[in-house]
């Protein structure tokens, strides 16, 4: 069983000791170590979309009785890399009527927050980049900046289809963020902390020797909260059946119609990175984080966490080829008339349970 946390921690400790021995101030050594950690996170987050795009192509191919990518590399595993290289060398076009500065900044504003959001995710024992006491609030707050990037993309393109896509995207993201946040409130009520690491650790172990202490197994409250969080997360990442902002049958490609090359790639990097982030949050909040339930110790904690996360990612991919796209008015009605009332009712039920348990 290979636990990466202690190995990486010892490696960085040795690096800091060696740098300090060379005469570098302690603060400088700490900054160097943290800079390397940030670089590793940025690199890994950048690679996640490549894996997920390949997985989506293979999963969709399996569901449609075809092979998917097969030509570039063994079983087509290098196809996404080839597509990325192609996008890097494509011409960067800015329409004549576009707001040049807004058009250039939009992909950066939409993409940058997702890298920051991975900082408090507990990937396993000793693999928490920054254990914030308010990590849940932090992720929701920082990821909300992406909405501004979507609006900037629509406004800065000088295109009515892009503008409509941007407005739809902003309305959808702001609306579905509300039930998504409220679905997490029962979790915070039961565990009394906003630290994702603390919440995941509180779910370790078994009830009565056979039932995992994961929040999803809390009667009624856990299941409702998980379903609302999952549905709202699908909407937040603009995935089918909630891909109204880029509905190609109506808006060409929505808010990123006028983007090409690397700027186009940044929007999709953000989308797939947010899919992985939402799945990782669901694992930490509802599925015990790195807890291996009956098989603790059989596999390293980080492998349990990644395995559960990819299981949730598979649901995102499965939904795409199962449900038809919602009409824009019904999409908003579903949020405000169904998800929001149920999320509030679930908070009330959770409060009642907490009150009864503490009597």
| Through-space gap between termini | 42 Å
- Derived structural class: mainly alpha
Instruction: State the shape.
Output: globular
Mean pLDDT: 89
- Percentage of residues in helical conformation: 55-70%
Biggest sheet, spatial arrangement of strands: 1-2
Write the layout of secondary structure elements.
Layout: H1 4-21, H2 26-63, H3 79-88, H4 100-117, H5 135-143, H6 145-156, H7 160-191, H8 196-202, E1 206-207, E2 211-212, H9 221-236, H10 248-251, H11 261-286, H12 301-320, H13 328-357
Antiparallel strand pairs: 1-2
Helix pairs in contact: 1-2, 2-3, 2-11, 2-12, 3-11, 4-5, 4-6, 4-11, 6-7, 7-9, 7-13, 8-11, 9-11, 9-13, 11-12
Description:
With 359 residues, the protein is mainly α. It folds into 2 domains: 1-47, no CATH class; 82-357, no CATH class. The protein has 13 helices and 2 strands. The protein has helices at 4-21, 26-63, 79-88, 100-117, 135-143, 145-156, 160-191, 196-202, 221-236, 248-251, 261-286, 301-320, 328-357; strands at 206-207, 211-212. Strands 1-2 form a two-stranded antiparallel ribbon. A hairpin with a 3-residue loop joins strand 1 (206-207) and strand 2. Helix 4 runs antiparallel to helix 6 (145-156), helix 6 (145-156) runs antiparallel to helix 7 (160-191) and helix 7 packs parallel to helix 13. The longest helix is centred in the N-terminal third of the chain and has 38 residues, at 26-63. The two termini are 42 Å apart. The model has no long low-confidence stretch (mean pLDDT 89).
């Amino acid at each position: 069983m290979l636990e990466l946390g202690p190995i990486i921690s010892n490696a960085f400790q040795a690096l800091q000791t060696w740098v300090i021995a060379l005469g570098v101030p302690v603060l400088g050594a700490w900054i160097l170590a943290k800079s390397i950690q940030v670089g590793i996170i940025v690199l890994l987050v950048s690679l996640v979309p490549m894996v997920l795009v390949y997985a989506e192509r293979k999963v969709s191919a399996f569901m449609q009785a075809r092979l998917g990518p097969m030509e570039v590399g063994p079983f087509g595993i290098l196809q996404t890399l080839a597509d990325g290289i192609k996008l890097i060398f494509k011409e960067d076009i800015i329409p004549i009527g576009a707001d040049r500065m807004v058009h250039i900044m939009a992909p950066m504003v939409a993409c940058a927050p997702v890298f920051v959001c991975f900082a408090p995710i507990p990937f396993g024992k000793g693999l928490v980049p920054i254990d914030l006491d308010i990590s849940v609030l932090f992720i929701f707050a920082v990821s909300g900046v992406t909405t501004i990037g979507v609006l900037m993309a629509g406004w800065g393109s000088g295109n009515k289809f892009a503008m409509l896509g941007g407005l739809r995207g902003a309305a959808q993201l702001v609306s579905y963020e509300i039930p998504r946040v409220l679905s997490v409130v029962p979790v915070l009520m039961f565990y009394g902390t906003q630290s994702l690491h603390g919440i995941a650790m509180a779910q370790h172990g078994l009830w009565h020797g056979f039932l995992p202490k994961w929040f999803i197994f809390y009667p009624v409250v856990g299941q409702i909260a998980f379903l609302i969080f999952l549905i709202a997360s699908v909407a937040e990442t603009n995935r089918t059946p909630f891909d109204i902002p880029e509905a190609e049958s109506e808006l060409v490609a929505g808010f990123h119609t006028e983007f090409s090359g690397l700027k186009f790639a940044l929007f999709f990097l953000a989308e797939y990175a947010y899919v992985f982030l939402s799945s990782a949050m669901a694992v930490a909040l509802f599925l015990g984080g790195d807890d291996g339930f009956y098989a603790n110790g059989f596999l390293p904690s980080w492998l349990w966490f990644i395995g559960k996360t990819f299981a949730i990612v598979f649901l995102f991919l499965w939904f795409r080829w199962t449900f038809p796209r919602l009409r824009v008015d019904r999409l908003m009605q579903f949020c405000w008339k169904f998800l929001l009332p149920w999320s509030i009712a679930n908070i009330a039920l959770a409060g009642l349970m907490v009150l009864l348990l503490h009597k």
